[in-house]
Amino acid sequence: MSDSTEFGKAPSGGAASGPPAFESAEALTEALSGQDYVIDPGFAVVVHLATALERPLLLEGPAGVGKTELAKSLAAASGRRLIRLQCYEGLDDGRALYEWDYGKQLMHVQMLRDRIGELLSGTTTMAEATARLQEQDTGLYTEYFLSARPLLEAVLSDDPVVLLVDEVDRTEESMEALLLEVLAERQVTVPEIGTFTARSTPWVVLTSNDTRELSPALKRRCLHYQVDFPTPERETEIVSRRAPEVAADVVADVVELARRLRGFPLRKSPSISEVIDAARAAAVLGLATTGEVEKVRSALLSALLKYGSDRELAVRRLDEGEPEAEVDVATDEGWVRRSSRPADTTSGAFGKGRASSGATRAEADRARRMRR
User: Which alpha helices (DSSP H) does 214-354 contain, by range?
Assistant: First the structure.
C-alpha cells in the first residue's frame, strides 16, 4: 500500500488555499445578497465562522427553508465549484466515495495479455512463471482507474470547493460513518491504494430535514444551526428578489397566505420556493394590487400545497374559519393552552419522537417532570 502523501497532499505539505474567506459576517451577507440570498444576521455569523474556521456546517430544519440554497449561493458568492452529494435511503460508498472503472481495467488486462508471452519467455516451470508474474505491478489499482464520486471528488480537487451533503438524514446511520473521515480528517481511504488527503480545503455544508436524529459523532464534528421559516417581512424580501416582476402588494398577500397555511397541521407546509412559484402564478393570472389573492386562491393552492388532504383541510379552514385545536402545554409559567399544530412540518408528517425543535423537546421534558 502506498503512502498517503503520494496521492493527497499539496506539494507544500498542506491543503491548498483557495479564495479568501469572507472578512466578516457583514461581508458574507453582502456577498450572498449579490446572489439574491437573504440571510438573517445570526445565521450569517454562524456561516462566517464555518468558512473562517473551515469547519463543516450542519443545517437542520423543515424542508423548504433555504438550507440547500445557502450552499449553492455560498459557492457562487465565493467563486468555488459546488459538489453535491444527494443522500437517499440505500446510498452506499460506491455512490458516495468511489467506484472502480471496470471498463478501463478490462482494456488494461487485455493489453497485459499481449505482453505476458514476452514476460514469461525463458521460464521452464509453472512456479518460475508464477514468481515472475508476482514481481510485476499490473497497475490495475491506481488512481487512473478510480471513478471519483462526490466525497472523493471534493478531496481530490486541486481548487477549493463547496461540498454539499444534502438531506443526510435520509440515509442509514451506517452512512454517517463514511462521512466522519471526510469531516474530521479531510481524507478518504481506498483500501487497494491508500489514503487520499485533501489537496485543498473544502467548505462542507450538510443539511437535514429532521426526519431522524443524527449521531452525536457526526454533530460533534460540525457547527450547527437550526433554520426555520423566515419572518413574513424577510420572506417578502426573498420572494421580491426572486420574482421581481411581481407587484410588491401581491407578494405580501401571497406570503400572508403561505403564513396562514403554515399555521395548519399539514403534511407538508409551503416551502419558500413554492411561495415564489405562487407569487409568479399570481402575476401570470393578472394580479397587480393588494386584496386580489382570494379571487385566485384555488389556483395558488396548487402551487403551495402538494397533498390532497392538505388542500381539503386548508380550504375548509380558510373558508369556514375553523379554529385550530388547542392542547395543554407545560411551560416555566405553568400550564397554558396552545395550538396543537406541530412545531415543524416533520413533526406533522412523522409524529412525535421522530424530530422536533429544541423548544418542543424542552417543553416535553418539563411536562414529564411536572407529571411526576
Answer: 216-220, 232-242, 248-262, 272-284, 297-304, 308-320, 345-350
CB 267 within 8 A of CB 348: yes
Reference 346, options 227, 239, 234, 230; nearest CA is 227
Estimate the share of the chain in helix, then strand, then coil, as percent rounded to the nearest 5: 50, 15, 35
Q: What is the pLDDT of residues 48-91, one digit of tens each?
A: 999 999 999 999 999 999 999 999 999 999 999 999 999 999 88
At 367 the three-state DSSP class reads helix
Which three three-digit cell numbers place residue 276?
Answer: 415564489
Angle at 132 between CA 130 and CA 137, to 5 degrees: 105
Sign, CA dihedral 76-79-163-84, equals: positive
Q: Is the pLDDT of residue 38 over 90?
A: yes
d(CA 38, CA 226): 16
Cα–Cα distance, 196 to 3 (Å, whole number): 9
Whole-model pTM: value is 0.74
With 0-12 / 13-18 / 19 or more C-beta atoms within 10 angstroms meaning exposed / middle / buried, residue 169 is buried
Gap between the Cα atoms of 304 and 251, Å rounded: 14
Give residue 79's Cα distance to chain centre: 19
Determine contact, residues 163/137, Cβ cutoff 8 Å.
no
d(CA 135, CA 130): 9
Residue 98, SS3 per DSSP: strand
Q: How many Cβ atoms sit within 10 Å of the Cβ of residue 152?
A: 22
CA neighbor of 24 nearest in space, from 57, 54, 42, 49: 49
320: number of CA atoms within 13 Å, CB side? Answer: 9
Q: Which residues of 35-55 are buried (b: 16+ CB within 10 A; e: fewer)?
A: bebbbeeebbbbbbbbbeeee
Q: How many CA atoms lie within 13 A of 256 on its CB side?
A: 13
The residues, any chain, with a CB within 8 Å of residue 191's CB and separated by 6 or more, are none
